[in-house]
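Re: the request from the purification team.
They wanted to know what the chain is likely to look like in 3D before they choose a buffer screen. I agreed to run a prediction and write the result into the notebook, where they can find it.
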Amino acid sequence: MRKAQAKKLPLAPDPKFNDIQVTRFVNCLMWGGNKSVVLKAFYDALDKVSAMTGENGYEVWKRALVNVTPAVEVRSRRIGGATFQIPSEVRPDRKISLSIKWLIRFSRERNGKTIADKLANEIIAASKGEGAAVKKKEDTHRMAEANKAFSHFKA
C-alpha cells in the first residue's frame, strides 16, 4: 500500500468554455481515447440543447449537473456479523464525480442515434428535474433516509 496519497494532476480547461468541469465530463465520456471526437460530440449535444430549449446549452448542462448531484449516500459496514447500510454525506469531489458518471451512464442507455442526441436528451431531462439520472439521485437519497436509524454506526 502507498504511504502518501497520489497527487491529483491539474486538468486543462476546455477550449470553448474555458471550464475544467467540461474537461472532466469529456474525459469520463471518452471511450477509446479519442478526445477530439468526444469533445465535438459534447459541443454538438450542447448546441442541440440550446436549439431545443432556446436557452444557453452550457447553462442548461450546469443546471442538469446540479440537479443530479447527490448530497448523501449509503455505505456498507459490517458490524457484528451483519452488514448495515450507513448513510453518510458525500465528499465534494465525489459529488461531482457521481453526477458526471450518472449523467453519462443514463444518457448512454437512452435511445437515440448518436451520443450527442442521447446526451442532449438526458441533459434536458435532468435540467427539468426528470430523467433516469435524477431518479438515481432520488433513489440514493431515499435509501439514505430509510437507513437513517443506522447513522449512529458512523466510523
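For the purification team: Residues 20-67+90-149 form a domain with the Ribosomal Protein S7 fold (CATH 1.10.455.10).
Please add any questions underneath this entry.
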